Amino acid sequence: YHVSKPFTDFHMYPIDRSKKCFDTYCPCLKKLVLLKDIWRKMEYEKEGDMLCKLNVANFPNIPTILDNCDIDGDFQKIKGPYHQAMQHYVQVTAKVGRTLSSFRSSWEMVNVVCDDIRAHEATWESTNILHPDISSGNILIYDPPSTPDGEPVESWGLLIDWEMAKVERQTMQGTHPFIAPEPLSPDHIQHKPRHDLELFLCVLLWI
To answer: How far is Cα 52 from Cα 66, in angstroms, rounded to an integer?
Structure first.
């Protein structure tokens, strides 16, 4: 892989998991792919393994996993915040998208979010898997290649960052400020599909 500079800035925060995303050229495929470098929480399944399951089931609007692995070495496992075990990890997915904030029209923005709502609905109804980290940074706009006649093809949405996806979700997770209020209440209400739908609306209001 030939890797560019990271186009994300999450790794610049002092308290974070140093997530970096790169536009990457794959010589084997002769195309651009997306490489993600992160310190993953070892309590969760690898995101690449989760994406592989979702790809096999042919769910729509979900990135196609090409490769993923934990990085070996003496200093590639650490104790993160709250003593969580962290593992240095990289993965490569097939499609490179634009950020949601780069929408070219309000119609494109809303259509892309609707695409990802359909992806969320399909995974929940078929597997009971919740995302559950809906945020403006986890919804991308994908521009398919033009037709052989040179005609542009309509863009569509990609729902990314399935690292924290689980069949059951007992605790609050997510990205500030995209966290549903109800699971934060003293009643410790379980995170449910309706909370993710609420967050899709929050994304539209935020953008």
So the answer is: 9
Structure tokens at 131: 């995302």
Residue 16: CB atoms within 10 A of its CB come to 13
- State both tokens at 21: 């995303």
111 vs 161: CA distance, rounded Å: 20
The rounded Cα 16 to chain-centroid distance in angstroms is: 16
Per residue in 66-99, is it b (16+ CB within 10 Å) or e — as a string?
A: bebeeeeeeeeeeebeeeeebbbbbbbbebbbbe
Which residue carries 């070892």 as its tokens?
Answer: 42
> Residue 109 is which amino acid?
M
Note the pLDDT tens digit of each residue in 165-185: 876 555 556 566 666 655 556
Contacts of residue 40, Cβ cutoff 8 Å, sequence gap at least 6: 17, 46, 47, 86, 87, 89, 163
Quick check: pTM over 0.90? no
Element spanning 85, H or E: strand 85-93
Element (H, E) at 48: helix 47-56
Looking only at the bridges linking them, the beta strands covering 65-70 and 85-93 are antiparallel
